[in-house]
Amino acid sequence: MPYVVNDNCILCGACVAGCESNAITEGDTKSHIDVTICIECGTCKMNCPSDAIDYIEDTEAAVQPDVVKEGEPGKS
């Protein structure tokens, strides 16, 4: 059950800096947590000053379609 970044993200970098597994990257509008790398320690949620990280029960819902990885179609 993964952690995901919601729209409250202010791109402050607190979650990225505190991530033990380097699963978090900053995007254009918000950070992104790679659920395949995340160890679900919860440090990101504890460090986030804007309450922008949620723990969800459904792994499928963790897919964040607004994030396009480099090399994928749609990336300029």
Structure overview:
This protein has one domain (3-62): Alpha-Beta Plaits (2-Layer Sandwich), CATH 3.30.70.20. It has helices at 14-18, 43-47, and strands at residues 3-5, 24-26, 31-33, 53-55. It has 76 residues and is α+β, with helices and mostly antiparallel strands. 18% of the residues are buried. The chain is built from 2 helices and 4 strands, in the order βαββαβ.
Summarize the structure.
The chain is an alpha+beta fold and 76 residues long.
Notable characteristics:
single chain, 76 residues, alpha+beta, Alpha-Beta Plaits, two-stranded antiparallel sheet, two-stranded antiparallel ribbon, 2 helices, 13% helix, globular
Whole-number tally of structural domains:
1
Low-pLDDT residue intervals, each spanning 5 or more residues: 65-76
CATH topology: Alpha-Beta Plaits
How much of the residues is beta strand, in percent? 15-25%
CATH class: Alpha Beta
Largest sheet: 2 strands, antiparallel
Structural class: alpha+beta
Q: Kindly report the spatial arrangement of strands forming the biggest sheet.
A: 1-4
> Which bin fits the share of residues in helices?
10-25%
Distance between the termini: 31 Å
- Number of alpha- plus pi-helical segments: 2
Task: Give the overall shape, derived from the CA principal axes.
Answer: globular
Mean pLDDT: 83
Topology:
Layout: E1 3-5, H1 14-18, E2 24-26, E3 31-33, H2 43-47, E4 53-55
Antiparallel strand pairs: 1-4, 2-3
